[in-house]
Every structure is written in C-alpha cells, then in structure tokens.
Specification:
Structural class of chain B: alpha+beta
Shape of chain B: globular
CATH topology of one domain in chain A: Cytochrome Bc1 Complex, Chain D, domain 2
Largest interface: A-B, 54 and 37 residues
Mean pLDDT of chain A: 84
Chains: A mainly alpha, B alpha+beta, C mainly beta
Radius of gyration of chain B: 19 Å
CATH architecture of one domain in chain A: Orthogonal Bundle
Largest sheet of chain B: 6 strands, mixed
Number of helices of chain A: 11
Strand content of chain B: 35-45%
Largest sheet of chain A: 3 strands, mixed
Number of helices of chain B: 2
Number of strands of chain B: 10
CATH topology of chain B: Immunoglobulin-like
Radius of gyration of chain A: 19 Å
Shape of chain A: globular
CATH class of chain B: Mainly Beta
Strand order of the largest sheet of chain A: 9-8-10
Helix content of chain B: 10-25%
Low-confidence stretches of chain B: 1-31, 151-155
Number of strands of chain A: 10
Oligomer: heterotrimer
Chain lengths: 280, 155, 107
C-alpha cells in the first residue's frame, strides 16, 4: 500500500520523507488502531461531525476518563471543593459565601470566554475566578497554572459536565473571535505551520506516534494528561502545540490565547463538557 | 507494514519530532536502563533462587500504551484463596525500566480473590513479568509485552 | 488537602467479595528524573507502602517503587462477613502517613 498526503499551501519546501518518520504507525487513517471508541460513546462525543479528542484516545485512556473513580483528574475537583469554602482575603469571604454550592455555577463553563464590558475584551473562566478573588474577596489572584487556579477551574468545568459547549461569537465578541480565528490559520514558527495544518488537514492521521485529533478540546480542559501526570489548562496545551512547531509560545492568560480559546471553544460547539478529561 | 512515501511538510518537521521524542524518553528514564539480566537477578532474589513455573498468574496490560507514564495494569492469580491454599503475593517486574521491581501486592484469604489493579510507568517497549507466590511456597510467572508509543510531539 | 479517594460499596451480602478502589494524590517522584533546568537528578520521593484493613485485620498490602505512576490508583478485593469499617493507610517514605476510612453494612 502506498499513499500520498500533501499539504496545500503557498510555495514551500517539500521533501518526500519516509513514512515511519512522520507518520510513525503508518499512514493510517481512522480506525487503524485501538483508538476508536465504542459506538455508544460516539453519539456523545461526536456532534454534527465534530469529534472530541476523546474519540482519538485508546480505549485504555478512555476508560480512565469514564470512571470517576479511576480518573485522577477528580482529585483536582475535590481540591477545588475544599478551596470553595476556604475564607481568604480582607473581605473575609469564601466562594461559598456568595455562590452557595459550586453546582450553582452549572452552565457557566460552556459560555466562556465571553465579552466583558468592563475591560472591553474577552474574559475566560480562570480570569473570572480571579476577578472574584480580587474584587469580591479582596484576596490575591491565583497565578496561572497554579494548583488552586487549576483546581477551581476544574471544579467549575466539572459542575457543567455533559452540557453542550455554547460560546457566543457575535456582537461585541466578534472582533475577538476573528482574531482567534486568524491565529488558528496563521502559519508561524520555524516550521511555518498553522494549527489548522495538524488539526484540519491531518486530523485522524499519525504524526510520529501521535494520532492527531481535530484539536477541539473545548469541553475537555483542564484535562489530566498522562504525559503531564497532572491536570493542565487549555493554554498550557496551546503552548505545547506552539512549541512543537518551534514557534514562540504566548503567555497563558494572554489576550492572544484567550481569543484563540474562544475560537477553539466555538469549534467545539455542541460537544459535551467532559472536564476533567483524560488525554495521553 | 510496508514503507510508504509521503510528500509532506519540510524536512525539519520530522527531525524536530524525533528530537522531542528522544527528550521525552530521556525525561522518563534518563538513567541507564535495567536489562533483562537485572530483572532476572531481581527475580532470583525474590524467589530465593527458585525457578517459577509458567502459568496460574496473569498480567494484563494494553498491547500499546499511549504514554509510558501511566499504563493501566491488572494482575491476578488462579487460587481458591482459602486458609489452606491461597496466593500470598504477586510482584510486577520490568525488564527495561531503570529499576526492575515495580511493586508487590500481598494477599490473604480475606482478600477473597488474588487480583489487583494499578497504573505503572514503562520507560520503553518491553516484556513485563508478574510473579506470584502461593501459600505452599511455590512460585509462578506470567509475562506480557507492552509497546510504548511515547507521543513524540505531545507538547 | 483532599489527598485520597476511596470507593467501598455501602452495603454487601455476607460472604460477598467486594471490589475496593483507591486513589491518592502524590507525585511518586521516581528518583530517575532530571530537573530540566539544572540537569540534576530530582531526589526520589514516593509512597512506598499501602495497607488496607477490615475491622482491624490487615488483609491486603503493597510495596511500591518508583515504577508506580504519579497519583497512584490501586484496586483490590475483600471478602466481607460483618458490618464494620475499612481503613486505608498510605506510607510516604519521608515518614508521613495518610489515612482514609469507609464504613460498610453487611446484611
């Protein structure tokens, strides 16, 4: 069997490379490995042809996500619950003082990032949590990718589990959405590649040993990555994807990444919130 | 699988990929690896030199592990688990990790079954052993091979 | 800190063999990893012993090495005959101990 894949694009160097190098497990499409999920799961993780990264994981990885008890990401949910009732800051309040149970925030995760009239730009969940900390609790904001911020974001995602992703991209959010979209399609880095090259053109194929997903992930993060051996944010994932093509990553929480987040979450529209997802 | 040619991207892409993969591998196990000999030496120490018989103990691991950092593993032994006749322990031994001994589970008749699940680290593709000791002092061994595909570009 | 999670059925029949699942938050630093920045080995720090007791009886225990994954998950079984309490103890090689308990009603 011999098949050719080519990436369309403006003039750039092309080299024929031996398959085992780039597409390690062979130039196999979907279904080539144990990676495809059961049909029953498929309905849940595929909406209008859009597939969650779940469907690109092996059944072993899927089964870690499927059982709340085996899923190590649940440890962060529990940590989030502890922080929820912890009084901090000069106002002498905890999240619970104003919001009651964390479950009261069900439905919040799927609609973020959203336009924030106060700053006249987008605000994502992490930033929303920190706004409550600084403005409502008079406490210090949590650092990006810090334990408490990851735990609280994971909790807020978790209480919306199963709800469809549903971000708004019209009205005042539109210009930011457009910026995120531009980022997604823009070539960058020494390898001169865009997000879309891996996650549109090559989705379902292997890049070395990695089966490329459609890079949606909108309802999945913070996710427990086997590689990280912990929970990590979507922006950390973005950083990794930028670094792979030798592009300078942006700062987590930067305007660039929040705009990109809106675009990625829009690409995930209708897919269920699956926080804490488990990925390789 | 036959070799296939693809026209794709420029050459640096896969070089980067290869580099990243080597780095990941190094991060997981950047020391000298154990060898099957070291595994055999550990086994001999464990059993006091007794040669375990094949059978009675089962080791289940995925054929292909997506990431060597977390490989779901199940061990079990065929035993009635009565006061008179039960499985005392099962050890998991790696033939390629920096250290051969991964873990040992100890059972009692109260366990009901000699079965345990755990997640383990696998530095690379390798054979893994499960070694059980029964209450009569006899040793048994079960083996499996797990292929580790450490995502070369996992970022 | 919510370190551990355990799952034990709330009820069981006498003579039933139940499955218990446990999960604990721990890096399980193997001692084989180098710090990316300094190039130095990160010292080993793991949970080296896990013990499960049923009404005081130690019925299952495990010795762990650096080859056990971070945030260790472990499941096993127990044959139950009367109501009572389970106790789970994770021993960290630096001497710390974490415990979790769970009750069961056996009919």
């Amino acid at each position: 069997m011999s098949r050719k894949v080519s990436m369309n694009g403006r003039g750039r160097k092309r080299a024929a490379v031996v398959a085992s190098l780039l597409l390690a497990a062979g130039l196999a499409g979907y279904g080539a490995s144990s990676a495809m999920a059961c049909d029953a799961c498929k309905g849940k993780y595929e909406v209008d042809g859009r597939k969650s990264g779940y469907l690109f994981a092996t059944k072993e990885t899927q089964s870690i996500q499927d059982d709340d008890f085996i899923n190590p990401g649940m440890l962060w949910v529990e940590k989030g619950r502890e922080l929820w009732t912890k009084v901090e800051g000069e106002a002498g309040k905890s999240c619970a003082s104003c919001h009651g149970e964390p479950e009261s925030l069900r439905g919040v995760y799927p609609v973020y990032p959203k336009y924030d009239p106060k700053t006249e730009k987008l605000i994502n969940i992490e930033q929303r949590i920190n706004r409550c900390r600084t403005e409502q609790m008079k406490a210090k904001p949590w650092k990006w990718e810090s334990e408490p911020l990851l735990a609280m974001t994971t909790l807020i995602g978790y209480v919306s589990r199963g709800l469809p992703m549903n971000v708004k991209i019209d009205g005042p959010a539109k210009p930011f959405f457009e910026k995120g979209k531009e980022f997604y399609f823009k070539r960058r880095g020494q390898l001169d590649m865009a997000c879309k090259h891996c996650h549109y053109d090559f989705a379902g194929r292997y890049i070395r040993a990695d089966l490329l997903s459609e890079g949606r992930g909108g309802g999945a993060f913070p996710a427990y990555r086997l590689k990280w051996q912990k929970i990590g944010s979507l922006h950390r994932r973005f950083k990794g994807c930028n670094k792979q093509i030798r592009a300078e990553p942006y700062k987590p929480g930067s305007d660039e990444y929040v705009n990109l987040e809106l675009f990625v979450k829009w690409r995930s529209r209708g897919l269920p919130v699956e926080v804490p997802a488990v990925r390789r | 699988m036959s070799m296939m040619k693809i026209e794709v991207i420029d050459r640096r892409t896969f070089l980067i990929g290869a580099g990243a993969s080597a780095a990941t591998l190094a991060a997981l196990s950047n020391l000298a690896h154990a060898t099957p000999d070291q595994a055999a030496a550990f086994l001999a120490k464990l059993t006091g030199g007794a040669q375990p018989a094949e059978g009675k103990v089962k080791l289940v691991m995925p054929e292909i592990a997506e990431n060597g950092a977390t490989v779901p593993t199940e061990v079990s032994a065929d035993s009635p688990m009565t006061e008179k006749d039960y499985c005392k322990s099962i050890s998991i031994i790696s033939t390629k990790n920096p250290k051969p001994h991964i873990c040992t589970f100890h059972f009692t008749p109260r366990s009901g079954k000699a079965v345990a699940k755990i997640r383990v680290r696998m530095a690379e593709t390798q054979e893994v052993w499960a070694v059980a000791q029964m209450s009569d002092g006899k040793w048994y061994i079960g083996k499996t091979t797990v292929k580790v595909t450490i995502g070369g570009c996992g970022g | 800190m919510a370190k551990a999670r355990v799952k034990v059925p709330k009820t069981a029949k006498a003579g039933e063999i139940i499955t218990i699942k446990t999960l604990i938050r721990h890096k399980m630093e193997s001692g084989n990893r180098k710090d990316k920045k300094t190039g130095k080995l990160i010292p080993r720090h793991i949970i080296d012993k896990f013990t499960a007791k049923y009404n005081g009886e130690k019925f299952f225990w495990a010795d762990w090495e650096g080859g056990v994954s971070a945030n260790p998950y472990c499941s096993f079984t127990c044959k139950v005959d009367k109501s009572g309490e389970f106790e789970f103890i994770w021993h960290d090689e630096k001497g710390e101990e974490y415990t979790a308990k769970a009750k069961i009603t056996v009919a």
